[in-house]
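Record format v2
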Amino acid sequence: MLMLWKKLVVSCLASGFLRSNLKRRPNLAISSKLLFCNKSKMAGALEEKSCNKMFGGLQKVFTHESSECKCKMNFGVFIPPQAESEKCPVLYYLSGLTCTEQNFVTKAGAQRVAAELGIIIVAPDTSPRGCNIEGEEDNWDFGTGAGFYVDATTEKWKNNYRMYSYVTKELPNLVNANFPTLPDNVGIFGHSMGGHGALISALKNPGMYRSVSAFAPICNPVNCPWGDKAFSGYLGSDRETWKSYDACELVKSYSGPPLEFLIDQGKADNFYTVKQLLPENFVKACGQGRVPVVLRMQEDYDHSYYFIATFMEEHIRHHAKILKA
Amino acid sequence: MLMLWKKLVVSCLASGFLRSNLKRRPNLAISSKLLFCNKSKMAGALEEKSCNKMFGGLQKVFTHESSECKCKMNFGVFIPPQAESEKCPVLYYLSGLTCTEQNFVTKAGAQRVAAELGIIIVAPDTSPRGCNIEGEEDNWDFGTGAGFYVDATTEKWKNNYRMYSYVTKELPNLVNANFPTLPDNVGIFGHSMGGHGALISALKNPGMYRSVSAFAPICNPVNCPWGDKAFSGYLGSDRETWKSYDACELVKSYSGPPLEFLIDQGKADNFYTVKQLLPENFVKACGQGRVPVVLRMQEDYDHSYYFIATFMEEHIRHHAKILKA
């Protein structure tokens, strides 16, 4: 067995091994600053909080002073190995209630597929934090961790809770200034409250996002308890103003470039059962707006990241097909 | 666009969709008790704490009264869809310092590959908890979260800290009694302290584990600070007794059925740099014992789950190749 032992010892030959064996990761050369972990400040005052090599690329988390939210905001960004030598499409992922940028980064299993397909994925936090607004920590579905991707208009929240402008304007500007993006090849997806965020961001900005999908999105917030609570808090009592952040309302009159919505919904999702999500309303509204939508009802799946991780690959391939066409 | 919309709406047809489109998941029929989420008690007093559908199978967490540890112990088990209709190989994953059963379950990205290959994966907690031993919570690398997969002999710890017997005897008996396993087709792997656990479990039980691998394992605990601290605490001051839990010592005289060790080690792993892991010592000892080993030094990878997730698929395929041969 000695000869077998000698033959099998492959020590300190990792990059050669990877290059020859992992055919789906074509470019593993780590030669420039971009794909190194460094703690230096970048353009736009991005400060690197963490950096870990993963699937030949880098998973980083940055923090920065947000002009929209007037507080420090964190976001994760996965930089695929292809970004070393070429500009890449960008896919924004918006998380759900109570999440930070970490949930997606650690649990969604997206990086493997993003590394294969050469897509940058950006995952922001879900709300401003630590703004010293009275009551901001009192609820799990309002305030901290629950920005709902709207620009608040009520007196108490309007100074900081501007997640809509943050994710559709400030963050893309920062990302395009700091990473080798293709700014015209941008997609957006998300989960639950973040699925709502993805749908409305695409519908309110025709042409900005070429691809869109969602996991168990809140499709019709003006008609569900979560939306009632959040929109009355952030937008006030005039329900008419709420409609500008409701995917069902927005899609009825959508007239921008073609969008194809892909939605996965678990049939064992408690929030689906109690009508917080209402995907059927969105399918109906898409019909009125003549916008294509695929709603896949997934038997026995729930609202968790186990569900998200299961269908993540298919969602990223859905985006890649459009973004790389 | 109306016709396109109608053509694309696929509502409430999930299982049909899955069966025809996800070719790598051959059996998605969920028909018996095994692949349902239920909170009933099972044989051996296993109590289900959580159950989530994932990749066509189920990720469950159980708790039970451990006779070895004399406290409640948790473990995760992923049941692949194939387990519905056939017995499956079992792969045990041992986690590292500070981990519970949750780290592997949520961060390692193993379920996708296990679902494809039809492998049950069992991931236990890393130590007894809440045993009211004075000082058990004082250190992150000793006591709670740091069982080191040994059977303690010192007075203070010997009653509860029996992780070696727990993972190699009590847990396999429970698993074989409750799940459709092939008890002769068993592999073991792990990370860091759990990599040490995997190596010694395989070496001390010739024939019990047919396949073995590790991510950044503590290879030579009798020669590193972590091992010094843990083994003197659990096993006392006679360093001679420590050798029976040291992979480098054990492999020199291994004479059981053939084992091929696969080890991945990040070159940017801080614990590697400060000589807590010492994989080169294991390669050398394998040479003395004439046991085959593959050590892959991975450029720029660290000690985190980002590293583990990156190479998880290749490890599971390494095990499957042997377990399904």
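Chain B is about 35% helix and 20% strand.
Confidence is low (pLDDT under 50) at residues 1-32 of chain B.
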